[in-house]
Design a protein that fits this description.
The protein is of the alpha+beta class. Helix content is about 40%, strand content about 20%. The chain has two domains: about 5-75, no CATH class; about 85-234, Nuclear Transport Factor 2, Chain: A. A hairpin with a 5-residue loop joins strand 1 and strand 2. Bound molecules: 2-acetamido-2-deoxy-beta-D-glucopyranose (NAG) (3 copies). Keywords: Signal.
Length: about 230
């Protein structure tokens, strides 16, 4: 129980300064909990937790280090001006497969960060959010929606077949680019899904403007042609 108190206090301290609400991460839990708890909270008579001063300094030190390493991890992610179309798609797919690394919902935030305005608006509407909704909340809603067990997109977050990724050469038209990404069953190589990615160049960075989705799996209305990824209910 004491460990829990310690952990949740750390989460609050870490996550508030960098603007994350709520947490549900395995990865971050592991990151912290494989270290021996540093200190335990005391309680005042209103039930608020507090820590002895010298412990606090140690704790702040450790949090600072952790926070910097986490921020560095997120900042290395696209979009940036040196990310190619192929790398962008690979990064998003990898990000979705490990959506809680390096931070809760990081993979879902990556979808939002790498979206054009138009695509972002579509994503927001697909989870019932309005245009100025808080990104953290949307990312978390998006995660819940994609990960629903019978959802065809759950494959992207590792809740379906294990797959390998096959990327086409990007077709580059100046400031627009198109590429196809095929998901094949890891075991049988059977084609499961073809996704088509439209990217556009904005301020020197490739962003996703639309993704379409053609499902070849029996259980997901195979062969009815390409649909925009967001249009299906999730
Ligand atoms: C840009 O993103 C790529 C991943 O596509 C990453 O490897 C690289 O470190 C990033 N560059 C900067 C300057 O952050
Ligand atoms: C995917 O691979 C993992 C580990 O190799 C395995 O435990 C899991 O059952 C596989 N999932 C499916 C749906 O085949
Ligand atoms: C993988 O394929 C082999 C036959 O090719 C089959 O025996 C095995 O059960 C499959 N494994 C999974 C996890 O689907």
């Amino acid at each position: 129980m004491k460990t829990k108190v310690w952990l949740s206090t750390v989460f609050t301290l870490i996550l508030q300064p960098i603007g994350i609400h709520g947490f549900a991460s395995h990865d971050i839990t592991t990151r912290i909990s494989n270290k021996k708890p540093l200190l335990f909270a005391y309680y005042n008579n209103r039930g608020d937790a507090f820590f002895p001063q010298e412990d606090m300094e140690l704790l702040h030190d450790r949090i600072r280090t952790l926070k910097v390493s986490i921020l560095e991890d997120e900042l290395k992610r696209p979009p940036n001006t040196s990310t190619s179309p192929t790398e962008l798609v690979q990064n998003i797919i990898q990000g979705l497969l490990h959506p809680f690394d390096p931070l809760p919902d990081a993979g879902f935030r990556l979808i939002l960060r790498t979206a054009t305005k138009k695509w972002k608006r579509r994503i927001l509407h697909s989870v019932g959010a309005n245009d100025d909704a808080d990104a953290e909340i949307v990312a978390s809603a998006l995660g819940a929606a994609i990960g629903r067990p019978d959802n065809q997109f759950a494959i992207l977050v590792g809740e379906g077949e294990n797959f390998t990724v096959e990327l086409s050469e990007p077709l580059n038209f100046g400031d627009e680019c198109w590429l196809e990404c095929r998901l094949r069953d890891k075991n049988t190589s059977k084609l499961l899904v073809i996704t088509g990615w439209n990217l556009v160049l904005e301020d020197g960075m490739w962003l996703v403007d639309n993704i379409d989705w053609q499902d070849f799996r029996e259980s997901f209305r195979p062969g009815i042609g390409r649909e925009e990824w967001m249009r299906d209910t999730w």
